[in-house]
Amino acid sequence: QSTWGLSINYSISHINSLNCSQTQITLDCCYIFWIAKMNILNTISSLVRKYIKYFVDKIFIHRRKKCKSVKGAQNNSPKGDDDKPISVNYHYTRQCNYTCGFCFHTEKTSFVLPIEEAKRGLRLLKEEGMQKLNFSGGEPFLYQKGEFMGELIIYAKEQLGMESVSVVSNGSLISRRWFATYGKYLDILAISCDSFDEETNVLIGRGKGRHIKQLHKIRRWCEEFKVAFKINTVVNIYNYEENMVKEILELNPVRWKVFQCLLLDTENTGEEAIRNAETFVVAKEQFREFLTRHAECKQLVPEDNEHMLNSYLIVDEFMRFLNCRGNTKVPGKSLLDVGVVTALQDSGFDEIMFKKRGGKYVWTKENMK
Description:
With 369 residues, the protein is α/β, with parallel strands linked by helices. The protein contains 13 helices and ten strands. An eight-stranded parallel β-sheet has the order 7-6-5-4-3-2-1-8. Strands 9-10 form a two-stranded antiparallel sheet. Helix 3 runs parallel beside helix 4 (147-159). The chain is globular, with a radius of gyration of 34 Å. It starts with a helix and ends in a 13-residue tail after the last helix.
């Protein structure tokens, strides 16, 4: 700016002090305008360079902070971000050997992914933040006598480094040999048991009268092979008046998950449903009555329909998240095709309810008592 001012002052004084011709005055005026133009262009150029540098620095700093936060999230557990699939339930098969009348994940297909594709899906989930993986069905021990699932359990623990791997099963097909092969890689085994009266179990569709005997065997095997033992119970019209305190205290599971019977359109209610659970449903008051009766069981973890419906990330046999909003199960696109982040957008997952129901808990067998 100082150079600009000196140049203009010099030219004006030159015109005033000399008896200049018209041509000289014209040339001097052109020089003044040229000087002004060049300084304006230099000023604009300088400002542009400053603004470009400012925005580049801002973008670089933002991306550097983002990378640090992502790296920190990968190295610190637990992950609390809403878009992270922290706990995933993989229903890799819909086939089952039981006929429970209230079942809400029914035998619509017989499809099972090739094991390498299943591993790829689990790896993608782990890369996006999965910490706990639960295998369910159907009956997960029905396909290849549990060998398929066993290999995935080893992969999840040894290759992916999962914090926790669990299985939910009716227990009827589990053998001691399976425990001997895969037990050391499994954190939690949950066995579904809705009654300690075999007649009630048969009425529900849970086996043919040997369910309780097998349950006690599995309890001993869990103790032998150091697997945390858990029980799942669905409160329905046939068992809500039962008192299970004595049996639960005797079996002493690390957790006793108690669900209220849930209706899901196309699964256990409606014209397209394979099951009809409408006759199994209990009211909230009946569910609370069951909970009150078992209040002394400290392992009891209750879940009514409100807490259960949208608080689970469910992946089906095609690696699709199932959206349960609207009391149905609507599959999205397979995460194998679109990736986990995109697939999650259609999952309908309720992160707040997941936390509210205690979805994140101490889930490694070394720390469970």
